[in-house]
Amino acid sequence: MAEILRVEELTKYFATKKGTLHAVDGVSFSVEEGKTLGIVGESGCGKSTLGRVILHLHQRTGGRIVFQGKDISDVTPAQLKELRKDMQIIFQDPYASLNPRMSIGEIIAEPLKIYKLYPSKEERQKKVREIMDVVGLAERTYSLYPHELDGGRRQRVGIARALILNPRLIVCDEPVSALDVSIQAQILNLMMELQRERNLTYLFITHNLSVVKHISDDITVMYLGQMVEKAGASEIFAHQYHPYTKALISAIPQPKYNAPDQQIILKGEITSPINVTKSCRFAPRCIYAKPECFEREPQLEEISKDHFVKCHFVREINGL
Amino acid sequence: MRRGGVGDPGAGNPTTALGIMGLVPDPPGEVLSGSVLFEGQDLLQLPEKNMREIRGGKISMIFQDPMTSLNPVMTVGEQIAEVVLLHSRMSKQEARKKAMEMLEQVGIPGGRCDDYPHQFSGGMKQRVMIAIALACSPELLIADEPTTALDVTIQAQVLELMRNLKREYGTSLILITHDLGVVAKICDKVAVVYAGEIIEYGTLEDIYTDKRHPYTIGLFDSLPDIENEAAELKVIQGMVPDPSNLPEGCKFHPRCPYAQEGCKHGRVEPVQISETHMVRCGRFRSGEV
Asked: Which residues on chain A are in Cβ contact (under 8 Å) with B235?
């Protein structure tokens, strides 16, 4: 299958009062058309920044972004506008990402107006109603305002708005995290169905591991701006090699009676990504850390087919 | 004993807790009827003055959002000492010492007691909240979504801390959450709440291995399962009803796959299906199941 997006050594640093914040630091991956790459990590690991840098919502510091075979690392504003037709984003918070003073119909039609795609109002309305039907928004919501809808329906509006330009790639930044459990499932099903029908590619950013497993083909685990492990979705849940991934997966409380308690409790908190040194960034919290881990940064290494891990002692820890 | 209250947001969980604490804002809220018996005493009949002694002393509460529940212009040490000074006869020095002890207990170095909330991370702020709630060794702790705002690995640390409380101090806990995984981890009994009513209540085992109410079953089914692959998630149709406009009869009937004519009218009374297990569903009354 064709590769649709590739990033190489992508970095994004922010200058802060205390020093340079390494939000994204040397991340590389590629995604095939019609697939979903899940990007998992805890708050502050740079996963949202990564998504935004790919869409040029943040200017990158270094590295390359290749989309549909073209290098889009540096684009002019005019080129970017064209590009945005093919790359869209769904935001986490359906409450904050919709303009409260626009009706649902207007919100969904706005991208069409910006790109002057359907000059006549009637055609635009027809297109909007079509897409509303696709995402399961009732006809009567057309003239309602965002505050009149519940969270699940608002997120459907966000999806409709992202879909109306018929994009190839959608960055989904925690799209179900703000929703009720029973509504989450509806939205996830909708997104998977749309993917099948339209051969969409998703970058699915989330901290929720059960959700990411359900929707992703491949999963990337991030820690402090770096990729620490990457593999197929079922592979990574079957074998986690990086100590952080192990702790992350073991920490999910299982909704089961008498679930075996094999939880690994990490010490401390996520450390600061400001002025990082050449070391393994996970070392301060790692139960296996050795002096070497604080001196030298490990490289991402292919441990088994398509399974990459960034850890000096990955073989030793896992008995490989 | 720890009880977990499970339900979608808007189901009425937090309000129940606020009712126990006597914190329902009035107006618009008013506790219409019922009683809250705590150690044999009805808290709803208690004058505000006595209630203040209980609140924070014998019963304390942890709120969901540590970012907004701490006072930003007081050091965390002062905030812990404040509770101690209110409920015991300690001197200011003693209270400060107690505050440092409490911080140590939740895994924060005592030396940080002069820091302000913004200097702590989310997980640490939640632990400061727990330290405040535990400062007077309450007999009952009400925790409203205590880990929802936290990352998974920090959530694991906080849950472990709460489990230890029971072991060491015998603190009772009412945990309010929508996370069925968290409930499985630390609760003994579970009450499933829908539209302001307990629709199923039983031991952890009853609810997790022998769930009976269609809503409870739907809730479990809608979770993506880490261990099994399913192409499509099952969903509960429809939306949580607007609490100001609840449906007549069984409040779940518009979304229930088993709803029948009889479900649309009248009040559904709870049915005891075993010594520990209660279900509020018309099908059990009519002996259908």
From this structure: 182, 185-186, 189
